[in-house]
TrEMBL record, chains A, B, C, D:
Lineage: Bacteria, Pseudomonadati, Planctomycetota, Planctomycetia, Pirellulales
Protein name in the entry: 2-keto-3-deoxy-D-arabino-heptulosonate-7-phosphate synthase I beta
A GO MF term: 3-deoxy-7-phosphoheptulonate synthase activity
SUPFAM superfamilies: Aldolase
UniProt record, GO biological process: aromatic amino acid family biosynthetic process
Pfam families in UniProt: DAHP_snth_FXD, DAHP_synth_1
Species in which this protein is naturally found: Lacipirellula parvula
Stretches assigned to the DAHP synthase ferredoxin-like domain: 1-66
Keywords for this protein: Transferase
Tagged with keyword Transferase: yes
Family matches, as InterPro entries: Aldolase_TIM, Class-I_DAHP_synthase, DAHP1/KDSA, DAHP_snth_FXD, DAHP_syn_2
Domain DAHP synthetase I/KDSA, first and last residues per copy: 95-326
UniProt EC number: 2.5.1.54
Keyword DNA-binding among UniProt keywords: no
């Protein structure tokens, strides 16, 4: 951590800061420049309260140096983590493909979806049973009944089941039916839920919050890792920006950046990341070319009748065509889908 | 809702859309322009699944017209809601002032803070007992012990107690000690928590998520109102933008905008909204001049030793000086603090 | 255009708006819903002053329907435009590759760069002679001397020369030496410059401003097209968002979105779009997989000695390796580099 | 400047960086921490090319310490600059008030506007003669004829004339008629124009670009100061964010932040900063309470017939009422309007 003193800082201010740093058990290195003094603090800056240095007299700003996460860090574990759930592998040479409807709506719908995405090459079935919805008046999901239908679809197809859990008290129930617990963007900083997921035996797909920095996202992963669950997949689903022609902005540079910082695999969600069906194929290809370890895509038998997210869901033909194109890009990357 | 058809839409596409709208029980008005056809849909567009119209063939985009919230709407209830908790009133001629430390750290700290902010004119004591923290390695709060200390501070000063609740299962416990339940920015879309708070007898201070649109924020309030609790205060605490000289960007135009759309009072948090102590006084004044119904400010006996948020906390003297300045602005607005 | 009246709008307000719309020569269609009245305005909404409808009494908001640009629109010209400059083709089956240093620094530097990027498969040489720099104290470019050196590099390699023009009065001079005029992000709305470039015989590479919407960007292109120059290439170079781990956020969904809206080719700049050399290769691959018609990349013989943008420039080996990888992706897209 | 080395950096990497820093004439201080080595560079980091350190082997990131501007800095000149133009003073105890239409449309319109805003207490007349417009099909202003009409309005009222200049070649012409040169948001980084304005005898009102950081904005001011013109007023007019209920987001924390960093006065534009007439009064009051040195407001005799920006213009009565309210806030700040 670097403490930059104001030009107007007095000797007393500087000495007070030196004493304060030492009182935290850290070692200050004082560098007096022509215009300002800076104090480089050596030691673990991730201790409680250190950010409060900024409120000291004569301090201009405090610049952190160390990444705030540890277990998620590539510096701690250099080989990439490969997460596996039934037949799906995410990471290494494998690019996991999770596909299916936004919401589970009926047995017919979920079984048909599972068969179609399996036939096109997906390795997991996504589908929402507990639906966090922006409006209290929207369809809130089929809940446990939806979980049972997904499990039935797994029985038919062998696909791994990926589904969202929205509260810590539901983790056990969802873990009973699902192969992967999804934590949604709205809950990325629901720490009670992260801790509960960290105690589940299931791998976790952790979506990035739409205004979360990468550090905040990796710290959310750190909560899960720290609670004992090593199988975390990061999922980039787009950030909020001034752009309105897409519902969110999908920053694919997250892929190489995150891969340099962490050993955890990264999955891209081009459906939420664009919000429009006609943009999903191009962004799936791009995700794979950027080096993503997986994709998660919304597919529905009849998107214009979907109970949620129809505007960004593909029908079966569109998905099958997309998979062909993605397969060629994966090959050009010396990787394979599924 | 307006369905804008593509220029290339066929008659069949248009007729299919008309039939689809009618099948939802809505009335389509078809307007054929020189360049495009648009279909104005009359009726309540807030029904499940209507957004999926966009995936219909030949559709270019779908523009909503009605605000998606009802109970929070000013169209439903035109007189402003005034929320009261002990001696604090928020709304009408009164500007509520909530002040205190980020975290409760000790009896001495919270009692001293309560006395100081009361002396300066605050009407409520804020303080965190359950702390949602970005890092799992940060201080997580004193939990129930912290709640007890806040209640003790209320006994001494008569201030209303405002404190955060982070999970639905804690609502009863926190309601036992607190006068106002705060729902933090990270939990603005934790719907299980919103529903639980909606069943509590305590007023709720609902912080805006840093990437939430105003509609999403008002829909979160709608969850609480819909569950039966009419006493919701909205709290603007800044949004994530490209600016880095402040931790968040505090958009004060939210005040007049929200007041035109909803009857609920709006509170400004200049501490989180700027992230730097030296900007808090100016933004508190500005909040009041913009017409805010309350402010919530971080105050600590010794900010550079605070266990959290020291960089944005005021000491007692700074707060007292700020209150003098804010009092003059409130008077120029024909309102009063507290 | 749809004029949404407030719920509280009176009959007089509605009639006044109807009269006002008619006075503009447009046809109002009045639709009276259960909650509100909306007026659908048929006719060309792109006339001066129509936006001011919003200030009429009883008006809640005005929603545009038609895209504001015409010449750039895909509805006007459905086949994609292919821009050619010497041996470089941008669009159709060809993916143009423009590479070279941020600034021209010396004859040796620019000739070496030209040879290296040509050997790796580039079809154009980029390099700045007139440099718009954030600080007045930064190196401002070699100006005409730099243009001459680029022309010399073209003589040696046959590469097309792409270079920035920063003011209308320089367009003739730069057109004398360059094969493509680049208009930088800072000047995207310098309309005097756009008009002058519209009268040049050279193709134009128009960078998107970092906070420009896609409509604003296409309207900037419209200025050039309207002035008579049909050879415009759009260049996405990233937008300003809250992300700080990249200098800008590169929204690759611009590629399929823009291709649906306009016939103009789109080029991606992964160097400015990420701001870090180690992210450029992945984003170049992704750009091509997203369907981009070209890429423009910063390459320098010795990036850590570069006079500008060294942190985002590749050295020759890095570029050659990147081109190999990009070639494979292009092949998987049934396209070819250069 | 602090150079943070990667954890994996070798001794050779560190030594190479030390040598490189020394070769720039700067002094490296090497600090070896338990996890990483950082090199604190003492000396003027604003020299050309220093940013390129980041591309060195083993470097993780480079953190700047000094502000990149000098002449604009409060550290250089501690007393605030007060800018004067005719009877308007901006800074110190005075809050300058510039008001008038977006565009000059006719003699009648501009004279009536000047009289009305003068009567309400404005000290300068704003009005556009050269209009930079997003669309080539929009009204582009009356040009020199418009300047003459503004000068006539000055003759009648004594108000200072504030008008935009859009190109370096127009600076002399506009300086002939105007008392203050406005440089618009789109041109904030049009360096040729900044340099020309720096040579004009007229004060300059420099608007912030909607995606400019404060440092970029102050560096743009630095171009003007460096060219010899000390009378620069900064104008905050809102930034681009994800918010859509306002056209831009007006970050009033810019006021106290900028006042701490620079001696130049800061003016707020609540018309562009919100984009809706009904939000302007509240934000003008808030701007003054935040400590702004001036406001600039769009006022039109008949906003719903305005040729530009009618949706954000006030009529005369609205402006007069706003000025009364603002006057009370100014008094509470111990300042006065005009």
């Amino acid at each position: 951590m670097i403490v930059v003193m104001k030009r107007s800082a007095s000797e007393a201010d500087i000495n007070a800061m030196i004493a304060h740093v030492e009182s935290k058990g850290l070692k200050p290195n004082v560098i007096r420049g022509s215009e300002r003094t800076v104090i480089a603090v050596v030691g673990d800056e991730r201790i409680a309260g250190i950010g409060s240095l900024e409120s000291g007299p004569g301090v201009d700003e405090v610049l952190p140096i160390l990444a705030p996460y540890k277990l998620a860090s590539r510096e701690l574990k250099s080989e990439p983590t490969v997460v596996q759930a039934l037949g799906m592998k995410v990471g290494g040479v494998n690019i996991g493909v999770m596909a299916g409807p936004c919401s589970v709506e009926s047995e017919e719908q979920i079984i048909a979806s599972a068969k179609a995405v399996k036939a096109a090459g997906a390795t997991a079935l996504r589908g929402g049973a507990f639906k966090p919805r922006t409006s209290p008046y929207s369809f809130q999901g089929m809940k446990e009944e939806g979980l049972k239908l997904m499990a039935a679809a797994r029985d038919v197809t062998g696909l791994a089941v990926v589904t969202e859990v929205v509260a810590s008290e539901d983790v056990d129930l969802v873990s009973k039916y699902a192969d992967v617990l999804q934590i949604g963007a709205r809950n990325m900083q629901n720490y009670r839920l992260l801790e509960a997921a960290g105690k589940s035996p299931r791998p976790v797909l952790l979506k990035r919050g739409p205004s979360a920095t990468v550090d905040e996202w990796l710290l959310a992963a750190e909560y899960i890792l720290d609670a004992g669950n090593p199988n975390v997949m990061l999922c980039e689903r787009g950030i909020r920006t001034f752009e309105t022609h897409t519902r969110f902005t999908l920053p694919l540079a997250s892929v190489p950046y995150v891969q340099a910082k962490t050993h955890l695999p990264i999955v891209i969600d081009p459906s939420h990341g664009t919000g429009h069906t006609h943009l999903v194929t191009a962004m799936s290809r791009a995700a794979i070319a950027a080096g993503a370890d997986g994709i998660i895509v919304e597919v529905h038998p009849n998107p214009d009748k979907a109970m949620s997210d129809g505007y960004q869901s593909m029908n079966f033909d569109q998905f099958a065509e997309m998979m062909k194109q993605c397969g060629r890009i994966a090959e050009a990357m010396d990787r394979k889908l599924g």
